[in-house]
Hints:
- By secondary structure, the chain is mostly helical.
- The protein has one domain.
- The chain is built from eleven helices and four strands, in the order ααββαααααββαααα.
- It has helices at 23-26, 33-49, 81-109, 112-125, 127-137, 140-155, 179-185, 207-216, 225-241, 246-253, 257-283, and strands at residues 63-64, 75-76, 194-196, 200-202.
- The strands form two sheets. Strands 1-2 form a two-stranded antiparallel sheet.
- Helix 3 packs across helix 9 (225-241).
- It starts with 22 loop residues before the first helix and ends in a 17-residue tail after the last helix.
Amino acid sequence: MGCAHTLSNxxxxxxxxxxxxxxxVALASxxxxxxxxxxxxxxxxxxxxxxDDGYDENDEYGDYYDDSAEGEKARIADPIEPFNRAxxxxxxxxxxxxxxxxxxxxxxxxxxxxxxxxxxxFTNLRFPARFVSCVLQGDFNGAAAEAGRFAxxxxxxxxxxxxxxxGKELNLQKQDTDLGQTLGVYGVGQGFYIVWPIFGPSxxxxxxxxxxxxxxxxxSYIEPFYVSWCIWAYEEINSTSLRIGDYESLKDAAIDPxxxxxxxxxxxxxxxxxxxxxxxxKTVPQGDGxxxxxxxxxxx
Length: 300
């Protein structure tokens, strides 16, 4: 989805480019005639019965939920759908015509172990964004874990090429968070759906990640500017080479790939913010000195 498909490990853009592949988890389904037939029949039955799916096209800033037995489902307003569809198809073509062929050639010549090391290096380099996000969220345990990871991986991991901090002995796991999630934790609504050219799916709230990472990513300060662009492009090629086939699977399994991406993105971001809120509630004591409230709160 950045270049039609990418969600990275991480956070480089509005929604981390290579990170988009995680969206396929939210839409996992088999690409069979039976699946399509069942989905079509269900939609027809709902329309015939006059059932409302909980989505209001007139609400530009709403999250919509389905409290059915299948679990909470998120929806997102899409008032600029024609523009978004045009950008989706642009990114889709960019992926199949440019990024995928280059990534496949790169994959052929570079062993997987080397490509994983490169991914680890860039993940370590993106430490500032994750650290600042944890601090702003009041997740000081997460911030400490990120600081520890950066120090250990930089020194003992040979500049971040290896990830010894995630081993059983230390178990310092990467905090999968960003500035968009930080705003969500504080109750800022996601707004409407946006598909940026090259960068992929986002919202006004999550676009803050794109701007924030411009200042928090060390590569952004390399001169001349086109060198930093080349490094960013290499990072995306390397990340894509480790995920070839994921975007294709999601696209092939969807009746309407654009709608599938949009709904999966809204669900993914809602779940990530919910996880961050619950984590903070469990680790940050309340004002009365008691333990954090365990009850789930609605995500705005």
